[in-house]
Amino acid sequence: MSLDAEFANRHNFSAGPGVLPEKVLNQLSAAILEVPDVGLSLLGISHRSEWFKAVVDECCQQIRTLMGLDEDWAILLLQGGATQQFSQVPEHFLRGHTQPADYLCTGYWSSKSLPPARLCGPMRCLWDGACEGFSCLPEPSLAWNPRAPYLHYISNETVEGLQFGFVPGLDEVPRVCDMSSDFLSRPVDASKFSLIYAHAQKNLGPAGVTVVLVRRSWLQGKGRHLPDYLQYEAQIKANSILNTPPVLAIYTVLLVLRWLRHDVGGLQAMAQINARKAAILYSALAHGADQIQVHANKGCRSQMNVAFRFGNPTLQQRFLGEAHAAGLHGLEGHRSIGGVRVSLYNAMTIQSVQDLSDFITDFFQNS
Ligand SMILES: Cc1ncc(COP(=O)(O)O)c(C=O)c1O
Fold first, then answer.
1. How confident is the model at residue 9 (pLDDT cuts 50, 70, 90)?
2. Are 138 and 167 in contact (CB under 8 A)?
3. Which residues have CB under 6 Å of ligand 1?
4. pTM of the model
5. Substitution candidate for ligand 1 out of 78, 134, 183, 199 with most atoms within 8 A of CB
């Protein structure tokens, strides 16, 4: 990798696909030519080989260890992105029910999760932040339905930069959570959940694979009306190798999981690093309070995605242009709300966040 490429990769603040650890990029580029111990290019190894079965097994084992999951949890590596889970979850756990599932609508992505659920059965949107422009999250006490088949919510709204600091809902109602943009960024009390899903392209690897964690005791034969490919049970039976899986994406996930466990030191250590990065950035932004506004209200601001906008659109354009020229990439806000968005995924280093924060502070001072 040239020095320029290294610099650009380190300063990639994109919301996803996002930055990956430099060590992983180096291992991956070597594996594309030749996987150690196999002698073949990663791109030409059969998904039916013993080597690949071991890769899938180790991925699952690493996730189990990192998150402290017991054997009731099945761990799947699926395709179709988080979007497929918006349908696959209600197809398994809502179809045929008379009680509505509870959904929280806290931002752009959770609003996408509602229509597929409505197609499968009764659901109600228990809380909707749209009229507040998705700038805040609900309080813990809502009129939860104790008979709901499940509660669905998104722990981190990637577009607006909102993150739950508590686990919403009732313990007697199964919780389903889309953790796509904060998966493995902090410890999670898995005992509170029945199903967790997260696509890879934020904290885990490249696009193409989605991790689904599901309790076997909750699943119990559900979803048998679905074709095999869409059935969690059939995927569990096939060990996530029901058809041709994305070998490159899954191998990259394994390299990232090894990095997270052995180089970073696990989820507690990762959470401390992520808290430090967010503190550096938010404190730089506080110096520009007369020029910018952070999208999320204090108290629900995300440590993974920080969305803000300048009061003056011309100044914002200048900021984005100068940042790009300085080698700071991926800062444009999502097309639905515009502005600026900084993503601080696991692989983003404290030094790179400091570099961006220094740039922001200089910009505020000189404009
Ligand atoms: C929280 C969240 N959920 C769902 C999605 C949609 O994911 P995919 O493109 O993998 O279907 C995204 C996309 O960024 C997201 O951030």
1. confident
2. no
3. 16, 81-83, 109, 154, 158, 178, 180-181, 199
4. 0.98
5. 199
